[in-house]
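Hello Y.,

Per our agreement to keep a running log of every chain we model this quarter, I'm adding this entry. I've kept the format consistent with earlier entries: sequence first, then predicted structure.
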Amino acid sequence: MSLLVVGLSHRSAPVSVLERAALSADAQVKLLQDTLATEPATEGAVLATCNRIELYADVDKFHAGVAELSTLLARHSGVGLEELTPHLYVHYEDRAVHHLFSVACGLDSMVVGEGQILGQIKDALATAQELHTAGRLLNDLFQQALRVGKRAHSETGIDRAGQSLVTFGLEQLSAGRAVEAWAKDKKALVIGAGSMSSLAAATLARVGVGEIVIANRTPDRAERLAEILTGGDDTDVLARAVPMDSVPVELTRADIAVSCTGATGLVLTAETVAAAVEGRTGTPAARRETAAGPAGHPAPAGAEDACPLDLSAVQGATGFSVMGEAAVAGMDAATLEQHAAWVDKGTGTVERRDSRRTPAEDAEADAEIIAALAASAATAGRIPERRRPEPVAEAPRPAPVLALLDLAMPRDIDAAVHRLLGVRFVDLETLAEASADAPMAADVDQVRRIVSDEVAAFGAAQRAAHITPTVVALRAMAADVVANEISRLDGRLPDLDDKQRGEITQTVRRVVDKLLHAPTVRVKQLAAEPGGAGYADALRTLFDLDPETVAAVSRAENNTENAKNRGRA
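Predicted structure for the entry above:
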């Protein structure tokens, strides 16, 4: 059997796809049950977080396993297989081990070095053990991943390379200010009382907010979290629990709101947030015009593609083309020449003025206009100004009065709140973009070395364990041979007393043990090396061992190990 992982994360898929593919707790259970019902898989575990969904399995066929696991992920996530496949990654055998160990150390997190992933790996293992879908391989793998992650955090400064998503999100909301100074004495609303929401509440208390309100669908959990925050020795924050239907009212009083629930729909709509801003300011929340242009229409392309135009002066011009006559009006000959070169490269992506013409016809017409204008510029030196729209003055934006942090997957807060004046909004997509430019600490290299060493050690241990049932079966066969020979000796020498019989028995056993000791020790060493899997087959062939006897030993060891693993979890 072989380890296989199929999944998608913030590194392989946009947040919009991750959001749609998010698995509820019930969906994870059904996914695991269906995984074990398939032919290629004998073990399964799901690691589902706010920015990754991964299915681990012990399979007997690689290609069949990839196809089956991919199909199951698509079926249970609700995202079509054709749409999901381009975003999936596959890791097999040692690469799969390396991937999970890297994840456990925080190397694959959205914020490098964050330690929350360890708790999520532990939860994934506990779920698989509870459903009896984790056998010896996945038990060993996930428990070793937890140990590797703890080692990385204790032996290196990986914690300095990044923070939790909550801390990183608060840094983005503070817009360059020290988080403690920005958050001091503010009122915070935390929606949800799960692990991420609890971390958010604890982080807010630590950075100095004055009050935290916890809203959750289960009142008991919200009240318990509020009690923990209030009773903490390291903070003096005031905390209280409220029902979910109080969120709109509490939002009008809050300076910061963090949401992370398991809801499948929106928890905060743009209308609810706008009403909260209006409740705080006394005036309706206006919508800002974004880079997309008025009413969400795309702005003309050009400036970022080395177009020589000043696009800020031509925004919103009806029928405007960056390749046409209106674009070049007022240009001198040198600038016009640059613009013509830019048009020739075909880098402009604009909406054509006449939808009835083909792109080739549009380009030809624009080229004729530019050629004629170039001839005019050659004689006059400059093209007369005409049809250039007046620059539109940008309205001043008010300072944000409400900071929103959405850490849920799928999202809790309507993305449309981006356009509300007076609101600063950060979600997982924002964090992914910001973290791409985050500096990497020097300790990351040390953690990578730890991961490589641990992967090699895990592989050696698994290969050595693979031959153990064969060695046990060999020694059992030798013990049977000794017992049969002693029994035959009793028949031929019935006058032996107990002392003589015991001495003969012990001598024969010592001889057999000494003969088997060196080969069995050496074969375990050889089997632990890369490519050593064939030694078990050679041992079975040389000593004519019954395959069923070896399989029975292996099953017995797995059952014992799984029982111990469930006890540890």
